[in-house]
C-alpha cells in the first residue's frame, strides 16, 4: 500500500493473532511499522511473541453475571405483574485498558 495504516484494531485477541501472522508473512515489523490493538486481553497475550500494544479487558464473567441478574429481574417482575417492563434497559460493565 502507498499509505499503510498506522494501526490495526482487531475485535478480539484471536483475530489479532491471525492478523499478526498475515502481517509477518508480508514483511511487516509488528508494532513498529503498524501498531496492533485488540479486545479481550486473553491470558495467552503474555506468552505471545507479538502481543497487542493495547488490549481492552472486557471482563466476560462479569458481563455474563450482569446479564443473568438482569434476566432474573425481568422474569421476577413479569411473574409478579407489579410494574410494566421497560422496553429497553442499558447497563454498562466497566472495562480496563491493558498496555503490553
Q: Please describe the biggest sheet, giving its number of strands, its sense, and whether it closes into a barrel.
A: 4 strands, mixed
**What is the total tally of β strands?**
4
Structural class: alpha/beta
Helix content class = 25-40%
Compute the number of helices: 2
The end-to-end span amounts to 27 Å
Strand content: 15-25%
Mean pLDDT across all residues, rounded? 89
Please give the domain count: 2
Q: Would you kindly provide a written description of the structure presented here, covering whatever features stand out?
A:
With 100 residues, the protein is α/β, with parallel strands linked by helices. It folds into two domains: 7-57, no CATH class; 60-94, no CATH class. Helices cover 34% and strands 17% of the residues. It is built from two helices and four strands. It has helices at 13-25, 60-80; strands spanning 7-10, 35-39, 54-57, 96-99. A four-stranded mixed sheet has the order 1-2-3-4, with helices on one face. Helix 1 links the parallel strand 1 (7-10) and strand 2. The longest helix is centred in the C-terminal third of the chain and has 21 residues, at 60-80. The model has no long low-confidence stretch (mean pLDDT 89).
